[in-house]
Write a structure and sequence with these properties.
Blueprint (H helix, E strand, L loop, with lengths): L2 H11 L8 H6 L5 H19 L9 E6 L2 E10 L2 H6 L11 E11 L12 E6 L5 E8 L13 E8 L2 H5 L6 E5 L9
Parallel strand pairs: 2-3
Antiparallel strand pairs: 1-2, 1-7, 3-6, 4-5, 4-6
Length: about 190
């Protein structure tokens, strides 16, 4: 019998990685060391993804009164430092009409990066007056390069790359929030 014929029953008999821990992987009988390492890495990544709180969902929107017309974005609202640090990390896709809105208690100079973010983004920096301060367009995924604009922002809207150009969003564009609860924002 070939090696593959011997391995297939072992592979089919393996438990799912969900719920297992790296310790489970190291003690699983019948697994090749490479399989144990892969299972451990996958479990570590799943655990990392599970640590951060989930952004608020619930019908929140951002309407941008752009050059090409009004456009509504359905947003996840991020208020805490833990959620800000996580942002859109590990997401493999996002709907064209979706985004993530980061709230800050006070306007200040904001910087963002794309660590562990798999999709290219436009970052729309918005002032306390709900007008766009500037846009960091087409931020490349999986980089630690800081993205920022001149001036202070109290909000940052992340959307799919190309959004700002397609709709004509730039400095001065008026923004309106719908259903966005600004209570409980971390400093």
């Amino acid at each position: 019998m070939s090696r593959l014929g011997l391995l297939l029953p072992l592979l089919w008999a393996q438990p799912s990685c969900t719920g297992s821990t790296p310790a489970d992987a190291s003690t699983s009988p019948g697994l090749h060391p490479a399989q144990k390492r892969a299972q451990s890495r996958q479990t570590d990544a799943e655990a990392d993804r599970g640590r951060a709180p989930t952004p608020e969902l619930g019908g929140s929107t951002v309407t941008l009164h752009a050059v090409e017309g009004d456009v509504v974005v359905k947003v996840e609202v991020v208020k805490t430092q833990d959620m800000r640090g996580r942002g859109l990390m590990y997401r493999e896709r996002m709907a064209q009409d979706a985004g993530m809105l980061f709230l800050f208690r006070e306007p200040e100079h904001q910087t963002f990066w794309m660590r562990n973010t798999y999709i290219p983004l436009d970052m729309i920096f918005i002032g306390a007056d709900q007008r766009v301060v500037g846009v960091a367009q087409n931020a490349a995924p999986r980089t630690d390069t800081t993205r920022q604009v001149d001036g202070d922002s109290q909000y940052v809207l992340e959307v799919n790359a190309g959004f700002a150009r397609r709709w004509g969003v730039g400095p001065g564009t008026l923004v309106e929030f719908g259903g966005v609860d600004e209570t409980g924002v971390d400093p």
